[in-house]
Amino acid sequence: MPRKVNQPPLKRINKRRLLQTPRGMKDILPEDYLYYDYLIEIAKKTLEFYNFRRCEPPVLEKAELYNKGIGSNTDIVEKEMYTLKTKEEGEFLALRPEYTAGIVRAYVENGMFNWPQPIKLYSFGPIFRHEKPQAGRYRQFYQLNIESIGDSSPALDVEVILASRAFLENLGFNQSDLEIRINSIGCNKCRSIYIRALVRYYKQHLKDICKDCRKRLKINPLRVLDCKNPKCIAIKDKAPSFLDYLCDNCKDHFKNVLDILDNVGVSYVLDKTLVRGLDYYSRTVFEIRKKDKDKETSLSLAGGGRYDYLVKLLGGLDRPAVGVAFGVERLVEEMKAMRRNLEFPKPKVFLIQLGDAAKKQAFILLEKLRKANISTEANLEKDNINSQIKNADRVNAPYALILGQQEVLDGMIILKDMTSGLQETIPFDRIIEELRKRLARKF
Ligand code: HAM
């Protein structure tokens, strides 16, 4: 939180002796939470307008859900999941490393497949991944997550993209600054054919690729396309494109997605190396980034796609689905970079009191003012008038009320206009009415 000029000097503490947040995790201080609150407000307005409804699965789920749903060979499950064993039942649980698997579990467990489809849900909350902390990459971060479950129509892929775009636009992003990168990774049938071609191609370049890619080729070959190692970029660029291997149905599906995007005027970049890091994806995958940033080094603001097999994999019926998640910290950083300054609402009145009798009256008046919906701040713990006036200035309220011993005896109160400096003495029992009138004129 930035320090204000009239704040007292910092008192130093010995940080080594302090219990600090775990690495990669941070406190969200009040001035930062302003951005989170604003983001939630815009998300709620935008997504409910698109008929998505909020749904929150628990932060802890059975670890098996993610092993099965995300894939046990993915980085998220293999290296980054925070797991624990409960003391009494010895249950293996995991702090959620993403929303989708939990939402799909909730869809199946609550019989949502019996409701009219698609089921359109959104969520907002903390996510945990034990990644190497760096700028824009935390071990606890927030996601805004959107899912549309129960239908395979390309129209739903586009709706999720359009809702994402509207959300970013309502947050203050310029469409021309954003880039939607899109690809299709086909269905189970065409994917195995493509993977064979990809492995064949990479095997000709084994000497020229990094150690991680050699490992990926064995356990999760599609992920070689996600490698950021400069050594592998040229090999990756010449790799076969999935689009040449899509089966007729997948080709049709992807063509329809792109046609609708064209028709509604959404620009996108076809990215044949976009595969995403979670195993449940099929067909359309996409990411949203800031345009000016380098694709290999920049971080995505959002990522998503179709996951047509996940509901069945987690014990449900055959229900295709599509969704996306936004990294909230990355959005907040962009909002700050765009100089979107947010401020706390200022109180309308600052109440100053002097002397025991005035303090007693001030408690009663403060409560009455707040009940009358006039936001008022006071320092009833302070007796010194100068420090109260200093705080009244700092709070920047348009009016101050001053109640001293004499005013209490006379049944009056002083009303000071903080902009003009003019002050008037008003009968105590008329002050709420008087303030209402003046505030209505001012605001
Ligand atoms: P994801 O790409 O893993 O997708 O994460 C989505 C977004 O979360 C990223 O684009 C990024 O903005 C943010 N993010 C990821 N890791 C971090 C981190 N360590 N620190 C800060 N932000 C981060 C998923 O999670 C999928 N479940 C999305 C989805 C929903 N697909 C279908 N439905």
Notes on the protein architecture:
The chain is of the alpha+beta class and 443 residues long. It is built from 15 helices and 16 strands. An eight-stranded mixed beta sheet has the order 1-5-6-11-10-9-7-8, sandwiched between helices. It has a five-stranded mixed beta sheet with strand order 13-12-14-15-16, with helices on both faces. A hairpin with a 6-residue loop joins strand 3 and strand 4 (92-95). Helix 5 (154-171) packs parallel to helix 9 (248-263). The protein is elongated, with a radius of gyration of 29 Å. The two termini are 28 Å apart. 35% of the residues are buried. Bound molecules: histidyl-adenosine monophosphate. Residues 98-100, 129, 131, 136-138, 141, 143, 145, 147, 277-278, 300-305, 307, 323-325, 327, 329-330 line the site of histidyl-adenosine monophosphate.
Task: Record the SSE blueprint.
Blueprint: H1 30-49, E1 53-54, E2 60-62, H2 63-69, H3 75-80, E3 83-85, E4 92-95, H4 100-109, E5 119-128, E6 140-149, H5 154-171, E7 178-184, H6 188-203, H7 211-219, H8 230-237, H9 248-263, E8 269-270, E9 282-290, E10 302-306, H10 310-313, E11 321-327, H11 328-337, E12 349-353, H12 356-371, E13 376-378, H13 385-395, E14 399-403, H14 405-410, E15 412-417, E16 423-427, H15 431-442
Parallel strand pairs: 1-5, 7-8, 12-13, 12-14
Antiparallel strand pairs: 2-4, 3-4, 5-6, 6-11, 7-9, 9-10, 10-11, 14-15, 15-16
Helix pairs in contact: 1-5, 5-9
Keyword list:
38% helix, alpha+beta, binds histidyl-adenosine monophosphate, 19% strand, five-stranded mixed sheet, 443 residues, eight-stranded mixed sheet
